[in-house]
Design goal:
The protein is built from 12 helices and 14 strands. The longest helix is centred in the last third of the chain and has 22 residues, at 309-330. The protein has 2 domains: 2-112, no CATH class; 137-388, Rossmann fold. It is 38% helix and 26% strand. By secondary structure, the protein is an alpha/beta fold. The strands form 2 sheets. The protein has a 7-stranded antiparallel beta sheet with strand order 4-3-2-1-5-6-7, with helices on one face. It has a 7-stranded mixed beta sheet with strand order 10-9-8-11-12-14-13, sandwiched between helices. The structure holds S-adenosylmethionine. S-adenosylmethionine is lined by residues 187-189, 192, 214-217, 242-243, 257-260, 263, 266, 284.
């Protein structure tokens, strides 16, 4: 009986998919074995002319999107409804259908609706992106758009990434309780993030901010300042010099995207020293700790795990960023580490987000012990950030 009900529900999903009336399918009440998975949202997309189901897996601290063609997707949905999710809600333009499973019993409830619009399935649609207006001088100066103000074909990926960055960083900045937050981006490069975030915050979210990109390459600084002036972005500027030499006092947020190796630590140190409410860094290479792991004496049980260069590299990344997160906590920051863009775009996709919180870092002794234990286990003598913090 429950198998029949599951097939009836899947039949409704299938016909909504085929008839372009599927708005959304949500699976909830997860009780399977995947750690931290909460729910799944499913919709239809058309990518490069192929119709697919797009699954967004919502985990506790991150979302993962997977697109699948129909037979594979329906097979996975069948398993999910049978064994893993207790409830599902299907929304279409014509009706809603709910699915509730209690043990072997399945209940379906259908209600008719009217007046809903057919959803867009264009995978490249712009309407949900934070940067809706593309005819902007900075997008042209950065090579994202052509003379016609349209995103160039070869810059679609970059534009998607920039929008993703804005989606992630804007809410973090908006949560800062200051009228006009001062944001410092360390190792700003060409300033993709700075321009996009400044544009979104000031013109769409109507949130005044001051944003400074610190960059040691003079040409990038002068180009960035010229484009900011041309764009009329009064609160955005670029400052020449190194991260460590920059006086970050008064910064409410310190961010750094792929600042090389220990430049990420310089940025974290500047954020902590300034007492910034937010420190958000996407680290780049992890050479400092890798060298120490190679030269030091990690626990012998780890020999087998560190034997292959590629795994040593990944362990070095985990050890480096774990120690960074612990050091941030030690300095009063509630810290999370998550994947912020798909690794199809870049393997450098960890984001450390630290928010100042009076309750964080209270158990100093326990944190210091954890730091010492991690270092001892992996043969790390000293994390560069420890030195900056005078530990
Ligand atoms: C990989 S790029 C990333 C640029 C930009 N954040 C982005 O994600 O598009 C790193 C940038 O950081 C700058 N940089 C590295 N170390 C720095 C330091 N210690 N002080 C200032 N800038 C630095 C480099 O010149 C380079 O432009």
């Amino acid at each position: 009986m429950s198998a029949e009900r599951i097939e009836e529900f899947l039949g409704a999903v299938k016909s909504a998919f085929a008839g372009n009336t599927l708005i959304k399918l949500k699976l909830a009440g997860y009780h399977g074995g995947e750690v931290d998975l909460k729910s799944i949202d499913v919709k239809k997309i058309v990518a490069k002319g192929v119709e697919k189901f797009s699954f967004t897996f919502h985990y506790k601290t991150r979302d993962i999107i997977k697109n699948q063609i129909q037979p594979e997707a329906l097979g996975n949905l069948r398993t999910a409804l049978k064994d893993e999710f207790r409830s599902a809600q299907l929304a279409t333009t014509d009706f809603d259908m709910s699915f509730e499973r209690n043990g072997d019993k399945v209940r379906l409830k259908r209600s008719e609706v009217a007046g809903r619009e057919t959803p867009s399935t264009d995978h490249n649609r712009a309407k949900n992106r934070p940067l809706t207006e593309t005819n902007k001088p900075y997008l042209h100066a950065l090579g994202i758009t052509g003379k016609d103000g349209q995103v160039r074909n070869d810059a679609q990926d970059k534009f998607r990434q920039i929008n993703k960055m804005v989606e992630i960083f804007a809410p973090l900045i908006q949560a800062i309780k200051t009228d006009r937050p001062r944001i410092v981006d360390m190792g700003a490069g060409k300033g993709y993030l700075d321009f996009a975030l400044y544009d979104y915050l000031t013109t769409t979210a109507l949130r005044p901010v001051d944003m400074i990109g610190v960059e040691m390459r003079d040409k990038l600084v002068s180009d960035g300042n010229a484009t900011a002036a041309q764009s009329g972005f009064d609160g955005l500027s670029f400052a020449p010099g190194t991260i460590l030499d920059y006086d970050a006092s008064g910064a409410d947020a310190v961010i750094a995207l792929h600042a090389c190796d220990t430049a990420t630590d310089d940025a974290i140190f500047k954020g902590i020293s300034a007492g910034a409410s937010l420190i958000a860094v996407a680290p780049c290479c992890h050479k400092q700790i890798r060298r120490q792991m190679e030269a030091g004496q990690p626990a012998t049980q780890l020999d087998v795990l560190l034997r292959h260069g590629i795994f040593l590299e990944r362990q070095a990344e985990m050890v480096t960023d774990t120690l960074r997160a612990l050091l941030l906590e030690l300095n009063g920051y509630r810290t999370k580490v998550f994947e912020f863009v798909s690794d199809a775009h870049t393997p450098k996709n960890n984001l450390i987000v630290a928010e100042k919180d009076g309750r964080a870092g209270r158990d100093r002794e326990a944190l210091l012990k954890q730091i010492a234990d991690v270092k001892a286990m992996f043969g790390v003598e000293r994390h560069y950030l420890e030195g900056l913090l005078g530990l």
